[in-house]
Amino acid sequence: MDKAKDYSALKKFCLKEGIDLFGVADISQIRDEFKIAPKVSQGFDKAICLGVMLSGAVLSEIDIVPTRLYFHHYKIVNSFLDHIALRLSNIIQKKGFLALAVPATQIIDWGKNIGHLSHRKLGVLAGLGWIGRNNLLVNEKLGSQFRLVSVLTNMPLKINSPCEKGCGECRLCVKICPAGAIQETPADFSHIKCFEKLKGFQSQRQVEQFVCGVCVNACRGNKK
Ligand code: B12
């Protein structure tokens, strides 16, 4: 087995299919946190984390409220990511290894508002970016204008190093957040304020699910 060669082959497949960010994280220290598939979770030691960029045109229509266009885009991008993750997991499975595609967006505990695992955390460990003031994964080139999916596996692959960068002096998201949820550090981010605002957008029939996109639109990484 050549870890670097297999990494390159999987990356090539993903980029050809339209994926923009590809990285592999070592999950051996964090897999106990996962809520997904507890019976098989212990067999995985890495996660392939994928990101696809969002449409600049769709995002640019969002100023202080989400748009119907963004909501449609959100659904299409989630579905696209889930399809690529399924295809990638099948490729790995056919090579004789374990693989599990983790849904891009599925909430499994509405009380605690959590998914099967944190794609953002995996993204940091896979070197795709850092957790920004907006509490999102921020990539140097794409800002927060991308969505994520992950595939858990035990296939021997080259591992990326965690990203060590940060937002620096940029506070564009702090100023624009309609919920006032974004503060100086990611630890200060108010999930409650954010969620209350999203519920408001939904109840006003702005969009049918909990989406916003204002901080996503504001975050351009370092290409401001
Ligand atoms: C539930 C959920 C929500 C809930 C909030 C719940 C929450 N507490 O985060 C609600 C409905 C409010 C919500 C809102 C939004 N969400 Co949401 N959401 C999710 C979902 C399904 C699960 C998140 C989860 O389990 N959180 C629980 C905690 C434990 O994990 P976490 O917050 O992700 O990770 C934190 C910790 O790990 C922490 N941390 C602490 N110590 C350490 C140490 C290290 C080393 C690291 C790396 C991290 C770390 O840092 C992380 C950030 O705070 C994920 C998909 C997924 N499965 O990841 C999408 C996801 C996080 N959402 C996303 C987005 C874009 C949004 C919205 C912008 C809505 C929209 N699409 O318009 C808003 C904005 C929220 C914001 N600014 O944070 C994207 C983020 C993409 C990105 N570039 O980062 C995700 C990843 C979906 C996707 N497939 O791309 N969301």
Protein topology:
Layout: H1 3-16, E1 21-26, H2 38-41, E2 46-53, H3 56-60, H4 68-94, E3 99-102, E4 107-109, E5 114-115, H5 119-125, E6 130-131, E7 137-138, E8 146-153, H6 172-176, H7 191-203, H8 214-218
Antiparallel strand pairs: 1-2, 2-8, 3-8, 4-5, 6-7
The structure holds cobalamin.
Any descriptors?
single chain, 224 residues, alpha+beta, four-stranded antiparallel β-sheet, two-stranded antiparallel sheet, 8 strands, binds cobalamin
Enumerate the spans where pLDDT stays under 50 for 5 or more consecutive residues.
Answer: none
Any idea how many domains? 1
What's the multimeric state? single chain
Helix content: 25-40%
Spatial shape: globular
Mean pLDDT: 93
> How many beta-strand segments?
8
How are helices and strands ordered from N to C? HEHEHHEEEHEEEHHH
The small molecules bound here are: cobalamin
Proportion of beta-strand residues: 15-25%
